[in-house]
Amino acid sequence: MPTPRQSDGQPSSATLSAAISAVGLRKSYGDKTVLDGIDLRIPAGSVFALLGPNGAGKTTAVKILSTLIGADAGTLHVGGHDLATDPQAVRAAIGVTGQFSAVDNLITGEENMLLMADLHHLPKQEGRLAAAELLERFDLTEAAKKPASTYSGGMKRRLDLAMTLVGNPRIIFLDEPTTGLDPRSRHTMWGIIRGLVSGGVTVFLTTQYLEEADELADRIAVLNDGRIAAEGTADELKRLIPGGHIRLRFTDPAAYKSAASALREVTTDDEALALQIRSDGSQRKLRSILDRLDSEGIEADELTVHTPDLDDVFFALTGPADIPNKTKENVR
């Protein structure tokens, strides 16, 4: 996924207009290559999810793009600023919520917020106003005067994200933000993230929950062995994996036999009176099957479309039986 560059070697306007862009990002620790020349381009106001097995380099990518550690190579821009020449401007434009909470358990939720306001050098009154608004927005007003040590895991995670937003960043890095949360708290966090994006914030998300990426991300990249194995929308990635099919079930044996004769390359199930046709789940494939049945005057009693999910994609791309590189490139 090459990023456009001008003839003089400078990043093009397309690169600079992206909220986050990386070309040839590399990072090694000793003789271990963690990131092996990855390219990313993330539009403003979108959610980008980076998936990969433990140790794939997801957190390393977040740390580099948020200026916490340096890259070995690569042209990197965040918020239109060059990480190599203007890291301070990058820090002013971003917020980071890491895997481990930044909440101080010894002080109250409100005091945590005010501490962040001081770190952002906000005037006292402005800091108090920002803290109060965010505590209300994250449904923490009632608990604001209580020590953070008394908060549940979900409350601490909401407070952590609220603290990240004190400086009003337009780009947020969320490194596995819902790890360890119960399903209700996770869904609450999803709603908060969606609200941020609807307000124009760009979110770079790493997660171990494939359902989370499916729910939230506009685009998803799968990182494996230091490289981007595939990138695309959730639907594009699912269509890479074989196993998708359309299933037709009949109650009339005659209709079942007629459909089996009319359709090509079907798998039959005589006992269930069902037909299975390989499909990528596209509208075109479904329409062609229905048109064929209509032309023969055949009507199925039940039609279901089965497509691989992100679990299938993840295991196929990060396991030993990878899909062909040529196929992967088609969705980049």
CATH topology of the largest domain: Rossmann fold
What string, H for helix and E for strand, traces the elements in order?
HEEEHEEHEHHHEHEHEEHEHEEHEHH
Count of separate DSSP helical elements: 13
Helix content percent band: 25-40%
What is the CATH class of the largest domain?
Alpha Beta
The span between the termini is: 6 Å
Averaged pLDDT: 87
Number of domains: 2
The CATH superfamily name of the largest domain is P-loop containing nucleotide triphosphate hydrolases
Looking at the overall shape, the CATH architecture of the largest domain is 3-Layer(aba) Sandwich
Q: Which word captures the global form?
A: elongated
Q: Which residue ranges are poorly predicted, with pLDDT under 50 across at least 5 consecutive positions?
A: 1-7, 11-16, 321-332
User: Care to count the β-strands?
Assistant: 14
How do the strands of the widest beta sheet line up side by side? 6-7-8-3-9-10
Protein name: ATP-binding cassette domain-containing protein
Family: Belongs to the ABC transporter superfamily. Drug exporter-1 (DrugE1) (TC 3.A.1.105) family.
Main location: membrane
InterPro entries: AAA+_ATPase, ABC_transporter-like_ATP-bd, ABC_transporter-like_CS, ABC_transporter_ATP-binding, DrrA, P-loop_NTPase
Describe this structure in words.
With 332 residues, the chain is an alpha/beta fold. It has 2 domains: 179 residues, 3-Layer(aba) Sandwich (Rossmann fold); 62 residues, 2-Layer Sandwich (Alpha-Beta Plaits), CATH 3.30.70. It is built from 13 helices and 14 strands. A 6-stranded mixed beta sheet has the order 6-7-8-3-9-10, with helices on both faces. Strands 2-1-4-5 form a 4-stranded antiparallel beta sheet, covered by helices on one side. Helix 4 packs across helix 5 and helix 4 packs parallel to helix 6. It is elongated. Pfam families: ABC_tran. This is ATP-binding cassette domain-containing protein. It is found in: Cell membrane. InterPro entries: AAA+_ATPase (IPR003593), ABC_transporter-like_ATP-bd (IPR003439), ABC_transporter-like_CS (IPR017871), ABC_transporter_ATP-binding (IPR050763), DrrA (IPR005894), P-loop_NTPase (IPR027417). Its main location: membrane.
